[in-house]
Structures are given as C-alpha cells and as structure tokens.
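Sequence only, no structure available. Ideas?
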Amino acid sequence: MVDAHPVVTLRDAEDLVRQRRPLDALRTLAPLLDAEPHSRSVLELAGRAYFASAQLSRAEEAFGRLVQADPTDAYARFVLGRVCERTSRRLEAVGHYRVAVALDPRPDYVVALARLEAPDARLA
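Reply:
I predicted one. Tokens follow.
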C-alpha cells in the first residue's frame, strides 16, 4: 500500500535520482513498483535509478519492458544502448542507438551512436 499520494512519491523519488541518491529513490519507489508495476513513469524512474546505481540487469529489464510496451520509446532505446555499451555488448548498443536516433535525433543519441560507429571503435 502506498502511504503518500503516488504523484508525491514519484516526485520525491525523482528528486532523489537528481540528487544522485538512486538507492534512496528505489526505496521510495518500492511501494509504487508493487502497486503499479506497469506504470510507464514508475518503470522509467526505477530504470533510471537502477542504471545510476549500476544495477544494469535491472535497468535493462525495466527499459526492456518499456520498449516492449512501446517500441517507439526513443529514450528507453537509448538507455538500453547505454546498458549494452556498459556491459561490453557494443553491437547490441549500436542497434538500440540507431533506433533511438531514427526516432528522435537528439544530440546525445547521435553522439553515442557516432562514438560506437567510428572507424576506430571496436565492435564486439
């Protein structure tokens, strides 16, 4: 059961992620994750906190669920690319980055893709 209003809980957790306190954010989000496991905003924030706390398999699971629900979610694709890159799965990362750039050519997405597609980048 969620004690505070879900929006307040979500905002509190988001503030904690911004303050670079992802583990506290995850503790704050726990009741929402239990109560609303399919909520896009809850899943995305949890995924960000997992990524920030180097819980990469959990981040991949959260963002993978977001992409499964909406394959056109450019941000989720981008973070999946980052997870793959950090876990030395560069070819998978390139695939996610390409989709992210095709959906939304934001500068950070384009830079990430270019970094991995550079001639001197080792793709493994």
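The chain is about 75% helix and 0% strand.
Hope that gets you unstuck.
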